[in-house]
Amino acid sequence: MPEAGVTDGGRGGWYGRMMAAGIFLVVALTAFIVYQGSIHNEFVWDDPIVLGQQLQAFHSVSDIFFPPPRIPQFGGLYYRPMILVSYMTDRAVLGDAPWAFHLPVVLMHAVNSGLVSLLGLALFGSIASAGRKGLDAPGGGALLAALGGGLLFATHPIHTESVCWMAGRSDTLAALFLLPSLLCYLRWKRDRSGWLWLALSAALFLFACFSKETAAGFLLIVFAADLLRIGDPAKTAPSDRERARVAAAEAVAAGGGGRGGGKRKAGKDARGEVPGPLARPHPPPPRSPGRDGRLSAPPSSRTSSCASRR
């Protein structure tokens, strides 16, 4: 998935993407190291009920989205089909051992932590400018903020129940869909012609709601982002090359494209024209025929001839 903060092309954009990928990997690896001890946990609390009784009642995809009646300790208003999909996937791929149901949750938390760092890059600035100029550039603060926010999310003990308890994975799974949904939405806001990003964001939001109903609060986040204009394309300052091009165009326009260039402040002559190289040439006065039918010379020519005879 392209990072919303990476916009520039060329070498700077490539280097910025590499830095974003590096931050993602560092944060995700940190989250995995912190919570990897829970992989060896046993089943506790509701885990035996979920795996030993409830999951046995689901035999097909239609049962997941249309649960059969009389499931032990399964509420009639409880509707989280993506949670059931994750259980059945864990069992089909990894088996029935406890670690087979704990490992996927730890991996999901690691991915979520990396996605939080990407969200920080999308919200706090352009990664490409920081990639070209280092951490002292304006975009360097975005790197530090994204890294710090991702590490805080990865290591905060508030996630202990959601990550270490197998049946408490609903929050982790919902975040796994909500975070990329928000990234896709911010990507769409940059260029509202890319409707694929908006459709992908809506699909991920639907999967998040199928994981836990509280994901519907994501609509308030979208409303706040639009109200505060978060993620909207900002009017960036022109580059040095653009400013030089505009200055050259203004100079040519002010100088009329002539050799003088620049701005001329010259007075007007008696005919109301500007003297100098910018003045328009005047046509010679007309020659009138004389008495003998010959064309007489202009007054200036006659005056000069008389002066030469003297």
Structure description:
With 310 residues, the chain is mostly helical. It has a domain at 10-168. The chain contains 13 helices and no strands. α1 (10-35) packs parallel to α7. The termini are far apart. 27% of the residues are buried.
State mean pLDDT (0 to 100 scale): 76
Measured distance between first and last alpha carbons: 95 Å
- Percent of residues in helices: 55-70%
**Unreliable stretches:** 4-10, 126-138, 257-270, 301-310
Number of strands: 0
Shape: elongated
What multimeric state do the chains show? single chain
SSE run: HHHHHHHHHHHHH
SS summary, helix count: 13
Amount of beta strand: under 5%
Biggest β-sheet strands, sense, barrel: none
C-alpha Rg, in Å?
Answer: 37 Å
Judged by helices, strands and strand pairing, the structural class is mainly alpha
